Amino acid sequence: MERYQPGQALGPLVKPPVTKTQLVMYSGASGDFNPIHTVDEFAQQAGLGGVIAHGMLTMAFVGQMLSEIVGVEGDLLTFGIRFTGMVRPGDVVTCAGTVKAVEDVDGQQVVRADVWGMTQKQERVVAGHAEFAVALR
After folding, report:
1. Which of 49, 56, 93, 114 is the most exposed place for a label (fewest CB within 10 A)?
2. pLDDT tens digits for range 64-74
3. 0.70 exceeded by the pTM?
4. DSSP E strands: which ranges in the chain?
5. d(Cα 39, Cα 78) in Å, to the nearest integer?
6. Which region, left, alpha or beta, applies to residue 115 given φ > 0 means left and ψ of -120 to 50 means alpha?
7. pLDDT digits (tens, 9 = 90+) for 89-131
8. Which spans in the chain are helix H?
């Protein structure tokens, strides 16, 4: 297992462009049927300029990156996100992070990190923190 160091980059995980079909599917999977996510006319009338992705979908992209880092033998201890921007169909979201601190605890390294997601325009759309534990070897 990799030994993490403060300042070390995490990721990136680059997601394919968000599609309207993906937003409809996520609406069904999440139970969030707010039409700002699926109906252009409604989202435009709401002042959004068109449909926007669910914030929780964007958070899930960052969660996927963390899950890939932690693996099946590690533990994701905390994960929190602020929504800071809108993701629209066609946007490519890149998820990344930076290790802030590492502590050895009971044969594991506990890693605290800042995490975020950005669009192809370098706009942060989610930002937050995570703490995970992975085995020391």
Report:
1. 49
2. 999 999 999 99
3. yes
4. 9-14, 75-83, 94-105, 108-118, 124-135
5. 34
6. beta
7. 999 999 999 999 999 999 899 999 999 999 999 999 999 999 9
8. 20-30, 40-45, 55-70
Q: Residue 24's closest CA among 89, 82, 120? A: 89
Token couple for 94: 């890149």
Q: How far apart are CA 15 and CA 62, in angstroms?
A: 10
In the sheet with 108-118, reading across from the earlier edge strand, the strands are 9-14, 94-105, 108-118, 124-135, 75-83
For residue 86, give both structure tokens: 């809108």
| Contact present, 43 and 86 (Cβ < 8 Å) | no
Burial annotation 105-129 (CB, 10 A radius, 16+ → b, else e): eeebbbbbbebbbbbeeeeebbbbb
Cα radius of gyration rounded to whole Å, the chain: 17
CB 111 within 8 Å of CB 98: no
